[in-house]
Model the fold of this input.
Amino acid sequence: MGILFDLFYTFFKIGLFTIGGGYAMIPLIEEEVVEIHTWLSLEEFMDVLAIAEMTPGPIAVNTATFVGYRLAKIPGALVGTLGVILPSLLIITIIAALFAQTNVAEIPRVKGAFLALRPAVIGLIASAVFKLGSKGIIDLRTGIITVIVFAIFTFSNIHPIYVLLLTGTLGALFFV
Done:
């Protein structure tokens, strides 16, 4: 029963204290899963992120489900998933109720909080990019792939699924 509580509590905490969506959650998930609990190595975590990005659904939910399953099979997957989505469900329900009464976003202090949170979210995402990039770019080949994919996403409208399928296929064929 201890691991199930740890999974729920860990992912509930991540869901509760992360603003900015799945990518902003990555540093918090990595801190908890890799460094604090050592449930995964950094390399395994990076593989999980790749899988979580390619599968349908939010990256944080997919990651929580995978980690939970890895540690405690189906009960772990359910508990990890519930832990990460429950805070959002509770918070959005409260916000929706408040918005029904008044436009909360126009309250000066709320507006100020959101303005300050935007750059913080960008900082969290940049931190994840730097930390994971330093482990994921292991040689010239992976560096070139990173630059090409970055350019594709920045300067074109090609859907990410096609790029991921192509790079995964090329990796399976040529990185063996």
